[in-house]
Amino acid sequence: MEVEKISGLKFHKKQDVAIVGAGMTTFKRRLNETGRELSYLAIKQALEEAGITIDDVEMVVMGSAPDTFDGLHMKSEYLLDGSGGSDRPYMRVFVGGGTGVFAPIAGYWHVASGLADVCLVITEEKMSSSYPHPQSAFKYIWDPILDRPLSPNLIWIFALEMRRYMHVHNIKHEDIALVSVKNKANALDHPCAQVAEKITVEDVLNSEPMALPVRRLDVSPPSDGAAALIMVAPHIARQLTDNPVWVTGVGWALDTTWWTNRDLYFPRYVAEAAKMAYRMAHITDPRKEIDVAEPYDPFDYKELHHMEGLGLAKKGEAPILTREGVTQRDGDLPTCPSGGLLGVGNPIAATMGVKACEIYWQLAYRAGKRQVAKEVTTGVCQAWGDLMQVGTVMVMSNKR
Amino acid sequence: MAVGKKDIECPPYAEGTPLSDEDIKEGKVTYVEDHPDIRYSWTAGQAISKFLNGLKEGKILGVKCNKCGRVMVPPRMFCELCYKPIDGWVELKDTGTVETFSISYIDPDAKPLPEPVIVAVISIDGASPHMGIMHILDEVKPEDVYIGMKVKAVWKGEEEREGAITDIKYWKPVEG
Amino acid sequence: MVAIVGVGYSGFNSTTPDLSWKEIMYEAALRAYTDAGINPRRDVDSFVTCAEDIYEGFAIFDEFVPDQLGAVVKPTCTVCADFLYGVATAYMQIKSGLADIAVVESHSKASDIQTFGNVVKFAMDPIWLRNIGNAHPYYLAALEMFQYMAQRCLSEEDVARVVVKNKNNALLNPSAPYAANVTIDDVMASPKLFDPMKKMEIAPLADGCVVFVLASDEVARELTDSPVWVKGVGWWSETYGYDTASFSAMYTYKAAKMAYRMAGIENPAKEVDFAEVDDRFAFKELQHLETLQLAGKFEVARLMAEGYFDKDGSLPVNVSGGNLGVGNLLECTGGQKALEVVLQLRGEAGRRQLSDVEIGVAQAWRYLPTHSGAVAVFGV
User: Fold this and answer.
1) Which of C43, C78, C376, C340 is nearest to C216 (CA)?
2) How confident is the model at residue C15 (pLDDT cuts 50, 70, 90)?
3) Domain that holds residue A323
4) Taking CB atoms and an 8 Å limit, are C92 and A109 in contact across chains?
5) What is the ipTM of this complex?
6) What is the pLDDT of residues A53-76, one digit of tens each?
7) For position A9, what pLDDT does the model report?
8) Which residues of A touch C96 (CB under 8 A)?
9) Residue B90's beta-bridge partner residues?
10) Do the chains contact at A45 and B11, CB–CB below 8 Å?
């Protein structure tokens, strides 16, 4: 990936932004807690880790995906009390599935602009409220005139994209299944994991067909859950910790609505978002300069697809790196050490817990059993969403 | 600022109370059901209205932009890349090429389908490369479908057509 | 400093059967870009849309946004809130160095919604509140209105005067579909739909779109000789519950406090020249004027009766006709308010132009059933 070096005024901000605390709930298919209660639990942990109380929080950013899951219009307002947003400036941002990394990006500009010194970012998803299945809510993401009359299922777009990706680079399903095997095994070390298990490539290939080439074990499960991050200005970070993690780059991009007009084999929306984030973080060779990565993995092929979009692998090279073990936790480029969405669960926006929060924990050397083997300085997390349109990318570093 | 940092080993610690399907079925947890009645009538707009009227007449219509030279389908009133109004309408063929496909075993509610359906992105002949629409394939076995396969629209009878994307029943392979 | 360098709008109409939401967005955006003299494909760094899914009828409305704004494969996002929250977002992005030029869009295609009452109801707590009674959810506003009237010793005429002022103001606004030459007797004779709230005190729905182009200091000065500055923005959420709310629009008080502090305004009643405030229920205008600190708690109704807030009064309010004249534009409500303020400050407000105005305030509430809102202070 070619990233131009920039200098001058662009990206001059009021102040730097540090992360000093993170928290998340367990991810499960169905939790008894309401969305507000889940948000509360995640925030409590993040505040504890940061060593502050809710009174120290100046502004709140909320991230949550479709209202249709929760069966609520204006769901940010419903979640307000549990999100710590009462009696504060409180705003919800939304880019579909990409919200998991976009919410902390919004937290970044709340602090970097100087409007807030302490910003709480909370993401929540309660998918189980939608009945009979969260998929029922996805019916409404389609164009009502051109797509919905065909009775589409959400899995279709993934299957179509996966097939195209496999076709262009001549990739075998076996190579893609390795991602699912790796991530579900990584998740065994994550206390919040929903579907952590030791499986084999054969298990994936023999699992129930959903929309071929996608089979049951290629897919992450729908989940309930919440995650929180505390983002602060440098002078606050200094008071709270000796080892803050700095946000060094953010980027996002949204591609055309006409997804059937694009060649789906390469996620150019991720590539554009990554270029923006890398320019800001002064990263010119991501493959060399990134030590640990959490690309979005709602499907196993998506991790590979996104690694290529992020410039961590050349086009078509990600399956090879995976096969060679480069992306294992003890590899040269540990990828999804948390267990990702495939292992820990996929409560859409709340996947911030395994993306942005995980990179924070890795760079703060606080990931415990999940800590990657190599020395880490710089990490990247990424999410993706809408109709295969959105890339959201955040680069962090434990050096300022 | 309250500094009372809690050292959490290997964060996060798992909080939350998992429920099983049985807990719901057997009424072990309290829940409230709601079936909201929310209805919309979306205006199709100028471009898509013309496209739908074309389908009613058995035609697939596209639009062209003279600046970037693209012929686009589904049609739109403006070229999103050049950000200018389109320069005219083009009648496209009702044949195309499979760009990618999937064999779906589940319906929109994730329930199993009695028979799998084949869904595909089909690039339409006469439009620019990769200009496709999503639709259904039939009259072909799932194992015989391949990327690059030539296909042709199978239309509903003239009286049955109502100006909807489903006026094309499905697409089938072009013989030979 | 952050400036507004271009504005565009489409509408406002009671219905728009000929255009899709994409096409009204395109129309408004094209006008804004032409006004600013920019090419969105080349010059814009960030696009922000303000939309709520259920108002649109989609699960992820964000998907359907980029093309008609010229935003394909560019930084684009949705803020689930009023247009003024979008202005705040663009403001922060510019201040963070993420963008030199940012675009904010919001629209209403309320005429696509067939069951608006149920949509509002769908925002209410499903366990606690949603299924109490069968009444149209506007009753929530009536509850608040009754308490407010009692606390401030208001008569029904006090509230009716807001309708008379705004609908008559709207007669001079060519894009105000609900303009009418009404008298206080007409309003008093209007049927009580939600006692004490009368039919004419409720803003009917309307369609439309507003697009703003915002730019950083240096870029703004390159683009225009007469930028309108965003002097301050504020947004605030009070609580969600109808049983915990203050019923006194604290959200506006706190949001205004934030915006005034940023703008360096110490005495709003003196320093603000005119205001566009949320009047989707007539009593809300009184409540919002009070919480914007543009008049004392118990003075608002008296000043209204004396013509203080008329278009030739000391502090003109809702010269555009407000929502009572223009219509309820859902999340675009703040957009119409901000648009009016910018047009007035630029001297482009046509027959309703105010003279000698330098500082204007736009305010919007997030509508039923919320207690959140935003305020923006613009100046030249």
Assistant:
1) C43
2) very high
3) 18-131+221-397
4) yes
5) 0.94
6) 999 999 999 999 888 888 889 999
7) 44
8) 13-14, 108-109, 112-113
9) B62
10) yes
